[in-house]
Structure prediction request, 84 residues.
Amino acid sequence: MNLLHIAEGWYKSKIHADKESILLSKKRLKECIKCPHAVDKSFLKFINGKSVNEKTKACKLCGCPIVEKSLVNEEQCKIGKWKK
Prediction:
C-alpha cells in the first residue's frame, strides 16, 4: 500500500467515503471475514489532534488495516480474493 492509498483509506474511513467506495468495501470485506489471514491488530491513529490506539482487523500478509484498504479502489488483495 503506498502512502497516498493509506491517506485515502484513512480519510474515507473516518471522514467521507462516496457510495461507490462503500459498496466496493462491503463486497471486499465479505471475502476478508472468511480469510484466515485477517487478524486483530492495534494501529496508532491521530484523530482530532490526539493519538488513539485503535483495535481493528488487519491482513497478516501485508499488514494493512482491512477496512481502510478495502475502501481504496486501486488496492488489491495480496492473494487475489478481491475480484474486480
User: Anything to note?
Assistant: Residues 3-70 form one domain.
